[in-house]
Amino acid sequence: MRRQALQQLLRTAAALEASAGAARTLSVLVQRAGAALQPAAAPAAAAAAAGLPRQPTALSAQHTQRRGMFIQTQQTPNPSSLMFIPGEKVMELGSKSFTSAREAMASPLAKKLFHIDGVTQVFFGSDFVTVTKSEDYAWSVLKPDVFAAIMDFYASGEPLFYEGEAGGPHAEHVITEDDDEVVAMIKELLETRIRPAVQEDGGDIVFRTWDPDTGIVTLKMMGACSGCPSSAVTLKSGIENMLMHYIPEVRGVEEAPPDEHENEGLKAFHKLEQHLSP
């Protein structure tokens, strides 16, 4: 098709050579013929070569807009929690849970998410954000706001945590020099065998204590695992059996009670709900 167009233009150019303005017209036609044979991937260059005004392309328009994100969601065993996977790194090391708006003041992203009515908990994993909602709110209502908050955060270029704010990642799983042999083995097993499986469901689990007298290990369930109906079964049937199998000194596993700041966050949220309800 382009070759036929070129041949037609060249025949017209030859006919115009005998006219008074042949020289100028021939030059324009030759330029346009060359532009017609340019690859389709370079429309701007072809237009310039033909002496035509430059038209905006989809590519140039794309660079003037904010880069979009494709955020995936993933169900968790807890119906009140949903994983949001932004396709970007979230936590470089460890994990972090926020159970109240006051705690969320340490993180721009957590603060944005707690501004959404119905959000009761936010959890940061390595490459995902787990949001937990109140039972009074539907995900169909909350998801668009959560998408917007995550996209706005990554577009802003802000850090995940404010500088100088207390609220960095949990590091209870890190083995220290003060840990005895049993504690070190518990942490190693949690890190290599248990935490990766729990994180796939949008949660995390961290070590709290080990009592050498009773052999009881206390662990903290976080993210989607916190408050999940199946977390007790996971703790006893899965984690307890594994720890007792590999570490004879372990005689049982218990979940740590809510921290003081977690209780305060829940009380504040329930108080707000009562205030807003008619």
Automatic annotation (TrEMBL):
Domain of life: Eukaryota
Cross-referenced SMART domains: Nfu_N
Domain Scaffold protein Nfu/NifU N-terminal, first and last residues per copy: 71-157
UniProt family annotation: Belongs to the NifU family.
PANTHER family, per database record: IRON-SULFUR CLUSTER SCAFFOLD PROTEIN NFU-RELATED, NFU1 IRON-SULFUR CLUSTER SCAFFOLD HOMOLOG, MITOCHONDRIAL
Function, as annotated: Molecular scaffold for [Fe-S] cluster assembly of mitochondrial iron-sulfur proteins.
Protein name: NifU mitochondrial
Species: Chlorella sorokiniana (Freshwater green alga)
Lineage: Eukaryota, Viridiplantae, Chlorophyta, core chlorophytes, Trebouxiophyceae
